[in-house]
Design goal:
The chain is an alpha+beta fold. It is 24% helix and 28% strand.
Length: 121
Amino acid sequence: MRARVERTAIGQSAAQAQAILGRDPVHKPGHPAEPFPSPRRELSLVTPAGESVRVALYVVAARSAEGCPDVHYEDVPVVFVDDVVVARDWESVEQRWRGWGGSLGDLRDARDGHQCRYPRP
């Protein structure tokens, strides 16, 4: 998936980028029957100027881990503003997030690849 994200380009239409990215699931170590979906998650924002922002998060690496969660992953954002690719890395997202109308709490949640989604015993 990392190579697919790298083949997308700033200025591409959402349709062009989606043709490259596809929807193939990504292997989850230790859970072959439960791969990560592609994208793993999508966030939607509306800028103060009314532009539509869609942040699609793609898993590009995953490894087994002890405890909860038992899989840690690295993801990369691909950001579309009004259906045009405007960013493909976390640095760009962090610089623009608040201008797009996002809260810092939502950004922190989006960036956290080590969240335990299940109750601990």
